[in-house]
Amino acid sequence: ELLNLLIPQQRPRVPVRQMLRRAGKAIQELKPCFMMGPQAVAQFLAPGHLHFDIVVMDEASQLRPEEAIGAIARGSQLVVVGDPKQLPPTSFFSRMSAADGDGDDGLGPLTTTEAESILDVCISHFQPVRTLRWHYRSRHESLIAFSNHHFYRGDLVFFPSPYPKSKSLGLRYQHVADGVYENQMNHVEARRVVDAAVDHILNRPDDCLGIVTLNIKQRDLVAELLEERLRNLPEAADFKERWEAEGMGLFIKNLENVQGDERDCIYISTTFGKARGTDVVRQNFGPISRDGGWRRLNVLFTRARKAVAVFSSMRPEDIVVDNKTPEGTRALRNYLEYARTGALPVERETDLPPDSDFEIAVMDVLRGRGYEVEPQLGVAGFRIDIGVKHPVHKSGYLAAVEC
Question: Which 3 state secondary structure label does DSSP give 289?
Answer without folding.
Answer: helix
